[in-house]
Amino acid sequence: MRAIKDKRAEKTKSFMGNVAIVLFAQLAVKILGLVYRVVLTNIDGFGDAGNGFYTAGFQVYTVLLAVSSVGIPNAIAKMVSERAALNDYKGAHNIFKSSFILFAGIGAGCALLLYFGADFVSTYIIGNSEIQYVMRALAPSIFFVCVSSVIRGYFQGLSDMNATSRSQILEQVFKSGLTILFVILTVGSMPLIMELLSRGFLLSDTLYYTETVNGAEITKTLPEIMAAWANLASSAATLISFGYLVLFYLRRKDGLDEKKRQSAVQSLNESTGHIMKSVLMLSIPISLASIVTAVNRVIDTATITRGIEIAFAGGIPAYAGNPAIPDPTVKQLSDYAIVLAGRLSKSDTIINMPLALNVAFSTVLVPSIAGALAKGDKNEASGKITYSFLISILLILPCVIGLIVLAEPIYKLLYPAASLGSDLLALMAISLIFSALFQTMSGALQGMGKVFSPAVGLIVGCVIKIVLNLILIRQPAINIYGAAISSIICQFAAFVICYAILSRHLTIGISFKKYILKPLIAGTAMGAAAWLVYNAAYAAAGKNIIAVLSAILTAVIVYFVLLFALKILNENEIKMLPGGSKLYSLLVKMKIYK
After folding, report:
1. Exposed, middle or buried: residue 561 (CB in 10 Å: 0-12, 13-18, 19+)?
2. d(Cα 300, Cα 277) in Å, to the nearest integer?
3. Is 213 helix (H, G, I), strand (E, B) or coil?
4. Average pLDDT over residues 298-304
5. How far, in Å, CA of 46 to CA of 34, rounded?
6. Contact status, residue 290 vs residue 70, Cβ threshold 8 Å
7. Are strands 216-221 and 208-213 parallel, antiparallel or unpaired?
8. Tens digits of residue pLDDT in 530-589
9. Three-state secondary-structure class, residue 208
10. Are 317 and 391 in contact (CB under 8 A)?
């Protein structure tokens, strides 16, 4: 009995080790992403308008990306982990080879579709033809993301998260650097090479506009062209990341071949066509949740554009130094809608940071639970899900409270040149807790084979969101805040539905005191401390950056002290964390635990 417990504890430690690898990678990626988006927003001429174009085009791109590649890593990881659990490494590699051929073709097709269909989609679906340049810039990356996802999924299924984490960090490093470089090169009168590429690759004839400053006319690059070059950097970065993954695979090929030779079971002798069909049958439903989310964002963008145009048809209020427009034209209304959508996208960029902490669980849960269930071990699967729930709550809740309390100071710190919209961040933060738990449940359900369930929850939530968008955004007093309100309700609905489905199939031991009450007490006390310290530090130093950093440092200390003082985590749960045994010994020495 003792041996069984030790073995299960070792599996959980390995599980949390993989979580830690993915968590670090996701956090690094999101920090770098936040940095370059902050730099872009503060570049002269980019601002909220550039953010609006950047986000609108990117959302269309994510639809095709979801169709072509989002389900690949989890689908392949699930199938490979099931083969690996039975020691059939030859069968696992056959899945990889067949999948690579399949998704290389799908990726190429979707890339061409996005490039040549950009004009139609931007004009007739989004309602703003300038967004087409961003779509064309992103088109090549679909192919490279597709084939990269196959390699990542293969190694995830073998419980090697390094391929995913290292390639993602590398991609984001180059994406951040190249994005800033490309946009800076477009500022003002574009250099000859940039101009030729813009006219040739992006198919744009108009690149500049003139602005009168102190009586002098200044030539500036259009924000939609700047946004396109920002996204062209993404395509270049995905190419570099794919190159790294190919080298990663080649360096491990000898070891993989040795595992295939040592397989202890008869490999499944399946044809390439049959494997392709199996991968598609699994990846399509897994992708469905992402497809629904991506399509919903496009609809969200379209409803925001049209809703804002209706809300402010009688007049646009003064904003960011611009005078009020009593009788706006269609173009002025469209431009204002892009600005408001840009403000919302700034909040999305910040909110994606905490979600990056949690996405590690949904990534690692899929192959882990699939492997456990392949061997018939329901207790191991249930234990990993329950533990993941607890850590998700403890990670996300303080982020939610912190963003609500410090929304305005954070906006002033990150977006000094475009600091409007902090109240949107405070409102959007509420949806974080439901989004995070939905992420965790999606990984659990997919690992169990309930691949349609996350999509069902999202479809219901998205239908609610679209209806609320159509009602709320058109109201002048609500306008863009309607999109934030509908997002909260959408994520809540998806969470409730998926939790109900999950709890019917596995025992999820969640208690109100441990999972809700104690974390809320710790989070509320942390939020109060952060608010008090911010105001005190700002009054004393008069500098926002000093006050924000002081408040965040205080919040982290207060939260972690209360986390262990309230004994939310027991001894075993602490030891499951990476480095948990040393942490528990320290807590015993401090007499917090006995």
Report:
1. middle
2. 33
3. strand
4. 75
5. 15
6. yes
7. antiparallel
8. 999 999 999 998 899 899 999 999 999 999 889 888 888 887 777 777 667 777 788 888
9. strand
10. no
The H-assigned helical ranges of 42-131 are: 47-65, 72-85, 89-120
Q: What is the mean pLDDT of residues 171-178?
A: 87
Give the tokens for residue 121: 């989609």
Q: What is the pLDDT of residues 401-423, one digit of tens each?
A: 999 999 999 988 888 877 777 88
H, E, C per residue of 147-174:
HHHHHHHHHHHCCCCHHHHHHHHHHHHH
Q: Which amino acid is at 264?
A: A
**Taking the complete model, does pTM exceed 0.85, yes or no?**
no
Mean pLDDT of 73-90: 79
Question: Which of 5-14, 39-48, 282-291, 432-441 is least confident?
Answer: 5-14
* pLDDT for the residue numbered 268: 57
Question: How many angstroms separate the CA atoms of 159 and 155, rounded?
Answer: 6
When pLDDT is averaged across residues 455-470 and rounded to a whole number, the result is 88
- Identify the CA nearest to 84 among candidates 290, 259, 279, 286: 259
What are the distances in angstroms from CA 323 to CA 84, 223, 500, 531? 65, 20, 51, 34
The contacts of residue 127 (CB under 8 Å, 6+ apart) are 302, 305, 306, 334
Q: What is the mean pLDDT of the chain?
A: 80
Question: What's the rounded Cα separation, in Å, for the pair 218 and 566?
Answer: 61
3-class secondary-structure state, position 105: helix
Q: What 3-state DSSP class applies to 395?
A: helix
Strand partners, 219: 210
Give the whole-angstrom CA distance, residue 405 versus residue 528.
8
Whether the CB-CB separation of 440 and 392 falls below 8 Å is answered with yes
Q: How many residues does the chain have?
A: 594
Copy the structure tokens of residue 472: 């709320």
Q: How far does CA 145 lie from the centroid of its chain?
A: 15
- State how far the Cα of 424 lies from the Cα of 410, in Å rounded to an integer: 12
How open is the CA angle 583-584-590, to the nearest 5 degrees?
95
Q: Quick one: pLDDT at residue 368?
A: 62
Rounded to an integer, what distance in angstroms lies between the CA atom of residue 592 and that of residue 217?
67
Question: Cβ(33)–Cβ(172) under 8 Å?
Answer: yes
Structure token digits, residue 426: 């405070």
Q: How far is Cα of residue 481 from the mean position of the Cα atoms in its chain?
A: 21
